[in-house]
Write a structure and sequence with these properties.
The protein has a six-stranded mixed beta sheet, sandwiched between helices. The N terminus is likely disordered. With about 280 residues, the chain is an alpha/beta fold. The termini are far apart. Strand 1, helix 2 and strand 2 form a beta-alpha-beta unit. About 40% of the residues lie in helices and about 20% in strands.
Length: about 280
């Protein structure tokens, strides 16, 4: 099943990448022209919503032409920035970016942090984390950094213990204490909300929770804490484009009081400004 899911993701990614590449001859493509539109690839929720707010309310006044391309996987945004079919992306946190660069040989860098989407444990079967039964099956995101992040959330809530030094790359093999004998179901992050009814619980990324109609602030049985959290989502570009005037302009707008108010009012604690 995992291989099948990965194959499906590859096909979807290839199709989206071709769509982005097809824009190469028009004004929607990435460009070094400071007067050209800035093309940003983003996850739909909340990243695309935040960028749409900037585009509709702030960009014109700031002299920025903004073109937003929404995708639902965690690979296309980085490959599009690396190959030049997009100028920037907004979907990931620094641990994921560092892991991606290491594994793919890309050279994408963070421009700034924008917001935090707290990772949460969700369940259709229990109302409190302590109610999970012995032998319960828990869904985990199967990408390297988010799986480690999910396991850390469970460890922080005393459900499991992890090997010393496991860090953000932790996998189920690093679980040294599992008193309730939990079983693990590793799935692509986007698949977890759709699979929650078949699991006892699932650890779900904030953007996918929101996309599926879940409200992290009220629906999660356990939610990550914001204090000292290294997983704030970032605006990222290929190394060397950090000083593009359009990128700098977008970075300023994403850190504006208007965007902070939009995030607070729209997501009410399910997405938290990181500036």
């Amino acid at each position: 099943m995992r291989n099948a899911l990965k194959f499906t993701s590859v096909l979807a990614t290839a199709g989206i990448a071709l769509s982005l590449a097809a824009c190469g001859s028009n004004s929607d493509s990435a460009s070094s022209d400071p007067n050209a539109p800035l093309t940003v690839v983003a996850s739909p929720t909340p990243h695309g919503q935040i960028l749409k707010y900037v585009k509709d309310n702030l960009a014109d006044k700031a002299g920025l032409k903004l073109n937003v391309k929404e995708v639902t996987d965690y690979v296309t945004p980085n490959t599009a920035v690396q190959d030049g079919s997009a100028d920037a992306n907004y979907f990931q946190h620094v641990p994921y970016l560092e892991d991606f660069n290491k594994k793919r040989g890309t050279d994408i860098v963070s421009v700034e942090t924008v917001h935090l989407e707290p990772l949460g444990v969700y369940s259709k079967k229990v109302k409190a984390i302590a109610e999970l039964a012995d032998g319960a099956t828990i869904g985990l995101p199967n990408d390297a950094t988010n799986e480690g992040r999910a396991l850390k959330l469970l460890a922080d809530n005393k459900l499991i213990t992890l090997k010393d030094g496991a860090g953000t790359a932790a996998t189920p093999a690093d679980v040294t204490g599992n008193p309730k004998n939990f079983k693990w179901k590793e799935l692509e992050a986007a698949q977890l909300p759709r699979s929650i009814a078949d699991l006892d619980a699932a650890v779900i990324n904030g953007n996918y929770a929101l996309d599926s109609g879940l409200k992290p602030a009220t629906d999660a049985v356990v939610l990550e804490k914001a204090d000292g959290n290294p997983y704030a989502n970032i605006l990222a570009v290929k190394k060397g484009k950090e000083n593009d005037p359009r990128v700098k302009k977008l970075a300023e707008l994403l850190h504006s009081p208007e965007v902070k108010k939009f995030i607070d009012d729209t997501f009410q604690g399910s997405v938290i400004p990181a500036f």
